[in-house]
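Risk register update: the risk of archive-format incompatibility is retired. Evidence:
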Amino acid sequence: MRGCALALVLWPALAGAQPITDAWFDTPTSRYGHGVLGDAAEWGALRFVADGRQYAITLPETHVFEDWAPRLVDVTGDGAPEIIVVETDMRAGAALAVYGPRGKIAETPHIGRVNRWLAPIGATDLDGDGAIELAYIDRPHLAKTLTVWRFADGALSPVAQLPGLTNHRIGETDTGSGIRDCGQGPEILTASADWTRVMATTLRDGVLRSRDIGAHVDRDSFTTALRCAPLAD
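Archived output:
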């Protein structure tokens, strides 16, 4: 079983001002059955720990967390982490959602169709503007499009897209991608659309630009590249 999920109702009470220190998915469910991550189980709830107590957010029957693990990232810039997850509407497909201790803060639009998914990469200030950008691959098996959104003024707004990149193959339990900084600023690492090359993509002046950094052999190729080590040609 993968990860753990956020719910729409917090228990035992609303979380206070203390930061979230842990999060995991819970309440496995087969009510969706897309199976993109290798099995028919998704998640109906997200649990997290704040101020030493455990809370839960439970999704309605029309939604699931179609994800393997929550990501703790300070998206809002307040010094405390939020939780980034893939939340799927069973009729409208996946969206990337940001939750705080009091519930959902923001999310991208759902893709628009059942059985359509997005594959998270990571979140950081990609272009040095002081705001956090969230990166994912839109439909990694179909559209294969790197997509970046920015969190500012309490909401997510689209920044840029670049086709021809992917980070997931059907049945894999997580993604092959990430964000590194080898001294020249953040780079988003993905595979080329045909899985033959590892690509490093930067965001500058609202534009995504990719460069080929070496051959993709297997998941170790990403591990090596994330360490800023060279890849074989």
